[in-house]
Amino acid sequence: MTLDPSLIEDCARRLLAAEQDVREVTKITDAHPQLDVATAYDIQDCLRGLKQAAGVRIVGMKMGLTSKPKMQQMGVDTPIYGFLGDDNAVDDGALVDTARLIHPKVEAEIAFVMRETLSGPDCDAARVLAATDYVVPAIELIDSRYENFRFDLPSVIADNTSAARYVLGSRPTSVDDLDLQTLGVVMEKNGQVVEVGAGAAVLGDPAGAVAMLVNMLAARGAVLPAGSVVLSGAITAAVAVAAGDNVLVRGDGIGTTSMRFA
Ligand code: OOG
Ligand code: MG
């Protein structure tokens, strides 16, 4: 179902207000059960426009639901994409204020920083690697605006795939020096290992997840601009965090990155 343009904007404004006011809302499909994926991306685009109008600069994109642990955890098995604004970025090791978040969870990811613009529809992992400036370990903090962190595919797309904060490692590594599929990643919470995985958990190859993003963007007439940060998707299940927690992700040969919570 395509929604009336005024309804698309209403949905985007409701999600923006939920984020700003730090409160849960019912998922969009409760009010609009026929909402389809294309219209859900229209709502996400509208949300992006509202944020840009308020001064947010778009710095990159993210893939989500690209690994089995995430698909099983959320009960949705289709990869999705969202956008990253400069308001989502936090510095490596920085303190994140949980009072600004509804029900935060963290994910271990591999982030790409692109040297060249990529466009679909025939993008593949080799083109992604050739266009990549460097990779770094990342922690994505997701914070669904929906009640109890529960949603379906169209609702989570409209909600910008739960994007909230992210942090990148500060040591760039060239992809020429890495095998992204066997790259091991360890997530620690308060000094205890809570999740482990390898790059191949992400659709067999994180570079393939970035290629899928480029092809999904092409289907909507968009490109992945040079300079973009791309979160390729959680390697492991997401882990809930609260004030006082300390989360660290280390990737084999690519260093570490961390977030602390107040
Ligand atoms: C949707 C976003 C998932 C990932 O890396 O899989 C995501 C969610 O689980 O809330 O960012
Ligand atoms: Mg993620």
UniProtKB/TrEMBL annotation:
Gene3D superfamilies: Fumarylacetoacetase-like, C-terminal domain
GO molecular function, one term: 4-oxalocrotonate decarboxylase activity
Residue ranges occupied by any Fumarylacetoacetase-like C-terminal domain in the UniProt entry: 79-259
Protein keywords: Lyase
Record-linked Pfam families: FAA_hydrolase
Keyword Lipid metabolism assigned: no
SUPFAM superfamilies given in the database record: FAH
Protein name: 2-oxo-3-hexenedioate decarboxylase
